[in-house]
Design brief:
Blueprint lengths: L2 E2 L1 E8 L13 E2 L1 H7 L18 E8 L2 E7 L5 H11 L6 E5 L5 H4 L2 H12 L4 E5 L7 E4 L5 E3 L6 H6 L2 E5 L4 E3 L4 E3 L16 E4 L5 E3 L9 E5 L3 E6 L6 H11 L5 E7 L10 H8 L6 E5 L4 H11 L11 E3 L1
Parallel strand pairs: 1-15, 5-6, 6-7, 7-10, 16-17, 17-18
Antiparallel strand pairs: 2-4, 2-19, 3-19, 4-5, 8-9, 8-13, 11-12, 12-15, 13-14, 15-16
Length: 321
């Protein structure tokens, strides 16, 4: 993996909107971005929409060359399009899209995102990295035994029709000239991280089978000059500690610097917050940016344990690394 000089992370979609909390140097709130771009007065017509999901536009720069990747697209095409327009985000340089795992809140806007990228780049197809297990029908099982299906991930045919050059693989990848690392399947090694409790998937015969492990989840990483590995984990169904353990094992000579994303320590997984924080301390991360599905209890506990190293994500926020 190439060493990048700088990186910019624009949070296109996140569960939360927060432009009032103070931020350190190198982090710009949504309001500040709008003002910098010439917003004459504050108005709801200027603002992004928070939504249950995640999408990050990541640009890594090496010398005079930049590579841009879209990591997930969020739940809904209307939200994606609105936020891209409000933020003035340039999609023309996007050279690849990666879907982190097969859930609707990360994949719903993929077709529209591909259309918008292709309209901006003159019609060039966009390499779109998928895992074969992402396309199954999934559901949660309620206490009364009923299955509650989730919206399907857009099919290969739909993504191809919208401008994607779909690459379906279980293998790890170096993409955009080695600037970004896309992991393969993440080993489950911790005793307390057990996936997505209660999730099932439909088999070819129409039956439901347990699907808590979610082998299709991957993470993204860059190697930031002078700092180390920055990991992007959209939902951490594999477990945040499993994700970081795997990143460390894949790049043992590169220190871990930071982690962005949803840590999925809410709802049924809130019970593992203390164990997660204890294990997280061993990585000595300098930047912890929780968002999406992390949950307020976990964000509060992270801030209590790691102080100013914790900078929560929110829609429209820009990180300069």
């Amino acid at each position: 993996m190439e060493v990048v000089d700088t990186a910019e992370v624009i949070v296109l979609i996140d569960n939360a909107s927060d432009s009032l909390s103070s931020t350190p140097d190198g982090v710009e709130t949504e309001f500040a971005r709008h003002r910098r771009r010439g917003m004459p007065w504050l108005s709801g017509k200027c603002l992004c929409c928070a939504a249950h999901g995640l999408s990050c536009l990541i640009t890594a720069t090496i010398g005079a060359t930049s590579q841009t990747l879209l990591f997930d697209a969020g739940p809904d095409e209307w939200v994606f399009e609105r936020n891209v327009q409000r933020l003035g985000a340039d999609l023309a340089p996007v050279g690849a899209m990666v879907l982190s795992h097969g859930h609707w809140d990360h994949s719903g806007a993929m077709p529209r995102a591909l259309q918008m990228i292709c309209m901006a780049n003159g019609g060039q197809r966009v390499p779109t990295f998928m895992h074969p297990d992402m396309f199954a029908l999934r559901a949660t099982r309620s206490n009364d035994g009923r299955f509650r299906p989730m919206e399907l991930v857009p099919s290969e045919a739909v993504l191809s029709g919208c401008g994607g050059r779909v690459i379906v693989t279980r293998d790890e990848q170096l993409v955009l000239n080695g600037t970004f690392y896309v992991s393969g399947e993440i080993p489950r090694v911790t005793p307390f991280e057990r996936g997505f409790p209660g999730q099932h998937r439909q088999t070819a015969t129409g039956d439901w089978e347990p699907d808590e492990i979610m082998p299709d989840e991957r993470f993204l990483a860059i190697n930031l000059s002078g700092k180390g590995l920055v990991v992007f984990t959209a939902c951490s169904h594999a477990g945040l500690i499993n994700v970081l353990n795997h990143a460390q094992a894949k790049f043992p000579t590169i220190p871990l610097y930071g982690v962005f994303g949803g840590f999925h320590l809410s709802g049924s997984t809130e019970a593992i917050i203390p164990e997660t924080i204890t294990a997280l301390a061993s990585f000595d991360l300098r930047l912890i940016a929780p968002g999406h599905c992390t949950g307020w209890r976990a964000v509060s506990a992270l801030a209590g344990a790691f102080g100013e190293r914790v900078i929560p994500m929110s829609v429209g926020k820009t990180f300069q690394l």
